Amino acid sequence: MRLSAEARRRLVRAGVLLGLALLSAAAALLLRAGRAGWLRGLLALTDRLLSPRPRAFGGFHLASLGFCLLLAAGAAVLAWRTPPARRAAAADRVVFACGVTFALLELYKQLYCFFIVGNGFYDYSVFPFQFCSLPIYFCLLVPLLPPGRLKSAGLSFLALFGTVGGYLVMGYPNLPERLSLCLHTMLWHSLMIALGAYLLVALRWGVGDWRQGLRREYLPAALLFVCTLGLATLLNVALEPLTANSPGVLNLFYMSPYHPTYFWIISDVQRLLGWPASVLCYVLMFLILGALPLWLAARGLARWRQKHAPEPPA
Fold first, then answer.
1. Which of 89, 98, 159, 270 fits as disulfide partner to 199, beta carbons 3.0 to 4.6 Å?
2. Could you read off the pLDDT of 96-124 as tens digits, one per residue?
3. What residue numbers bound the domain in which 197 lies?
4. CB of 213 within 8 A of CB of 299?
């Protein structure tokens, strides 16, 4: 039986995903066993302390913002110029390529933090399920899904909530004192914003009634956001007993019931009304002040294009 082109593409992506998993496991096991000193040496070459430590709105941050804006503008133009007939396949390629990039960046960060920064002790503060870690999983898995509601929800999540996570950090970052981690932070969140810009244009929301769009575009992404927050809370509770020797605290989504949050306004709610109220505030702020304005802007752009620069039939 001959496979279709789409089935072959999914098979190749599944193979790449398996390869990334095996590469991660092999690197960790070899280093743990002391049989990959060359790799430890390469990681050590990237270790450089910065003095003074980079600050928000300093030269490093402003240069990173400029790079981010150029990358996002280029991604938006690429999406704008993609013909309708090639849109779905092109989006899958872009999303999966970003997923591979995120996975390689995260592999480097985990190895670097464990063997160089932590000197063999795992720091649970870098456990890879922060809110901004989610593009690793969504970008690698969503292109493997067949067209349908689940895939559409995953793309909407990346377009809306991925962009929110990116601009929250790029707008006012808390930069580490190590050069490689500074570069990692800025590149990671710039890529999140660029991918969001690509998808916000490529998905061409805005056609049809806004209530229908709200139900098909915004609400499924919002539900995924709530589900990932629930999973992060379960991990915060389940893994907390393992963190006694960790150099840093486990605070996934920065909303652990065991540690204070540092989000503006939410920290005050947590201090005055407790953790459950702060979680509700967190969800509402992400939904109403974060994702909803992006969805409205994307719909407005799509409707403007439909009126002033109509596309040829697919």
1. 159
2. 999 999 999 999 999 999 889 988 788 99
3. 70-302
4. yes
> Is this model's pTM higher than 0.70 or not?
yes
182 lies in some domain: yes
* Cross-strand pairs, 253: none
- Which tokens is 135 given? 């593009």
Structure tokens that stand for 155 in this block: 């793309």
Q: Which two structure tokens, joined as six digits, stand for 281? A: 């505030």
Q: pLDDT tens across 69-100, in order? A: 999 999 999 999 998 889 889 999 999 999 99
CB atoms within 10 A of CB 88: 15
Residue 203 phi, psi dihedral angles, 5° rounding = -70, -20
Cβ 299 vs Cβ 205: under 8 Å: yes
CA distance 204 to 78: 13
Q: In Å, how far from its chain's centre is CA 264? A: 21
Which residues make Cβ contacts (< 8 Å) with residue 88, sequence separation at least 6? 147
pLDDT in tens, 159-183: 999 999 999 999 999 999 999 999 9
- Give yes or no for a cis peptide into 52 (omega within 30° of 0): yes
C-alpha distances in Å from residue 268, one per residue of 144, 263, 277? 42, 9, 10
Q: Note whether residue 211 is domain-resident.
A: yes
> 294 lies in a domain?
yes
Closest CA to 217 of 229, 230, 200: 200
Neighbours of 282 (CB within 10 A): 20
In the numeric block, which tokens belong to residue 103?
């996975």
| CA count, 13 A, side-chain hemisphere, 122 | 12
Q: Which residue is listed with tokens 């710039």?
A: 190
CA distances from 203 to 70, 84, 135, 291 (A): 21, 10, 17, 15
Do residues 298 and 196 lie in contact, with contact meaning Cβ atoms separated by under 8 Å? no
Residues 162, 290: contact at Cβ < 8 Å? no
Residues 6+ apart with CB under 8 A from 133: 106
Residues 282-308 have pLDDT tens digits of 999 999 999 999 999 999 988 888 777
